[in-house]
Amino acid sequence: MREMGFKYDPSTAGSSVRFDPPDPRDTPITFHRPHPDSTLYPVMLKDFGKRLKRTYGWSEEDFYKAAR
């Protein structure tokens, strides 16, 4: 998320992780850190992807562009 220009907000409670978008007019997004095991399983990644698409209209191609 940082590579996409988001800022990590460590002040959230519990296992929540909030990311603030580069444009302050956009909605921040919150994910829950997996616990007790920190493994991100494919089903979780699919859910994260769906939420990012719904919230920001992102697609897989957007991540490929950011990785270059």
TrEMBL record:
InterPro entries the UniProt entry points to: HicA_mRNA_interferase
Protein's UniProt name: Uncharacterized protein
Region (Disordered): 1-33
Superkingdom of source: Eukaryota
Organism expressing this protein natively: Fibroporia radiculosa
Cross-referenced Pfam families: HicA_toxin
GO MF: mRNA binding
